[in-house]
Amino acid sequence: xxxxxxxxxxxxxxxxxxxxxxxxxxxxxxxxxxxxxxxxxxxxxxxxxxxxxxxxxxxxxxxxxxxxxxxxxxxxxxxxxxxxxxxxxxxxxxxxxxxxxxxxxxxxxxxxxxxxxxxxxxxxxxxxxxxxxxxxxxxxxxxxxxxxxxxxxxxxxxxxxxxxxxxxxxxxxxxxxxxxxxxxxxxxxxxxxxxxxxxxxxxxxxxxxxxxxxxxxxxxxxxxxxxxxxxxxxxxxxxxxxxxxxxxxxxxxxxxx
Length: 257
Ligand code: NAD
Fold this sequence. Notes:
CATH superfamily: NAD(P)-binding Rossmann-like Domain
Bound molecules: nicotinamide-adenine-dinucleotide
Strand content: 5-15%
Oligomer: single chain
Strand order of the largest sheet: 3-2-1-4-5-6-7
Number of helices: 7
């Protein structure tokens, strides 16, 4: 496993023990990093604080990514505690339940705005906040989580597919903008995993079964497998990789008939 020793990171998107961001937090901590975790709203605070108890000297902070003031406070606190920042993991996504079950053509303006704000714009806002802290370290690595629904149609993924397309494009533009400062920006496109976010997608179990039947590895992936790939991209082992969407999906993306 590549090392993250002497590195500090901010991880956004932990809701519970099934969260992909939680697996990344654990793997990053095992690889030697000190991490800050955020939680979205008081409802999730207890969960996240309890999980953070497993990590070495964690920082736990509130952050709703639609609130600029909360984002600013996170980076103030991170700077105070860590001095600088080596990596950011962005695992926040949201769409209204009706937009993940109604016909796509019914997507409302508000539903579109919300999905794109939480799931794509927030990567820009977090990257901007991280920039001065990463410059202090001579560079950094920013990682987000996406899904193949950005390019292909999966039933009921709907506006989240549009948000993921925007997110993947955002990765490329940020990578171009921040590359001269030695800040890398990448995404992992994970295969489907049963998490809280996934439970909002109607018919998710049939997507899982389809991957078991069709992916080259004939199985789905788990969060620890996504986390291992994440540690590679966050570490110096990934130092020449930027603007990339790394598929961690058992090869499903390559299948046709
Ligand atoms: P999850 O529900 O555990 O994580 C989603 C997180 O987004 C939660 O922690 C939630 O609190 C956070 N969030 C939502 N709105 C927010 C807001 N306004 N401010 C701050 N945080 C907010 O589910 P997950 O599956 O681990 O999702 C993590 C990421 O992985 C998401 O981007 C998701 O789209 C992506 N992803 C998931 C799968 C899958 O099948 N589970 C596959 C590919 C990509």
